[in-house]
Amino acid sequence: MLEKHRTAAGHLAALITILIWGTTFISTKILLIDFTPVEILVTRFVMGYFALLMVYPHRIKTKGIKEEALFLSAGLCGVTLYFLMENIALTYTLASNVGVIVSVSPLFTAILAHFLLEGESMRTSFIIGFIIAITGVILIVLNGSYILKLNPIGDLLATLAALVWSVYSILMRKISDLGQNSIGCTRRVFFYGLILMTPCLFFLDFDPEFRQFAELPNLLNLLFLGLGASALCFVSWNWTLGVLGAVKTSLYIYVIPVITIAASALILRETITPVACAGVVLTLAGLYLSQRTPQRTSPDTSQEQPKAVLEEDLDL
């Protein structure tokens, strides 16, 4: 019973995380008037780091270089590479392309988890669900415009971003097995991500001014991204990875376009076409199918081993 409550809490945490991540585009869109993408990126993770430091000021103690390398690699993939690749990809290709390609991340995660993690093998229902969901994501992102132009550089960067996020999910699943505090682990990942991002600032447009932060709309949106989308959501996402596993957790990425299009309609008053509505239905159906665990049936229906059959039924 306790395990069922923990699993339910994991699904709820993943859903809340995706709900926040799906609305970050609004804050980002407002901030892009005064900030460059890399300025927003660095600011939100610096804020997130110090917020987590205040909540959990204790140091995470690792047992050796191997464990420390997990945190460094997670910071490199989940903070530095993913966000830099995604932001740079948006300068080369359409946002719709990036939205579709990044949504392929659950497939990459499932493939990697199949070979690198125990108990997370791929199932037929996952493949079918992925095809249905990604079809829905495409319809949502295009929203009836049918504009999807290939751009080798941008699309390649978006694909690499999806891949490194999958690697990040695998790494955090391994980190969760260390039994360390989730907040402390996330803070350590932020630390390495920011350190590894520092050399890039000399080549990218990074020159923030104090007046930009003094404006209330900018400050509020940065707080939302730093405290909500970074500090809170990364902690909840990383905790969920340990509860549900890398594959099931990553499937919630499908819901991001659904949240985004709903927020667009409610807040920005953008038009949603019937095609996008169909995409929402397909995405949610694909998510449900991918999350389904096949029911186990007893190979022997005879009465030779009634106790074993009863125990299996109870497990269901």
Q: Are there runs of 5+ residues with pLDDT below 50, and where?
A: 296-316
The coarse silhouette is: globular
Structural class: mainly alpha
Number of helices: 15
Number of domains: 1
Strand content: under 5%
**What do the pLDDT scores average to?**
84
- Taking all Cα atoms into account, the compactness measure Rg is 21 Å
SSE map:
Elements: H1 2-21, H2 24-31, H3 37-55, H4 65-92, H5 95-102, H6 105-116, H7 124-142, H8 152-176, H9 182-197, H10 210-214, H11 216-244, H12 246-250, H13 255-266, H14 274-291, H15 306-315
Helix pairs in contact: 1-11, 2-11, 3-4, 3-9, 3-11, 4-8, 4-9, 5-7, 5-8, 6-8, 7-14, 8-11, 9-11, 13-14
Protein architecture, described:
- By secondary structure, the protein is mainly alpha-helical.
- It has one domain.
- Helix content is 74%, strand content 0%.
- The chain contains 15 helices and no strands.
- It is globular and about 50 Å long.
- The two termini are 12 Å apart.
- The C terminus is likely disordered.
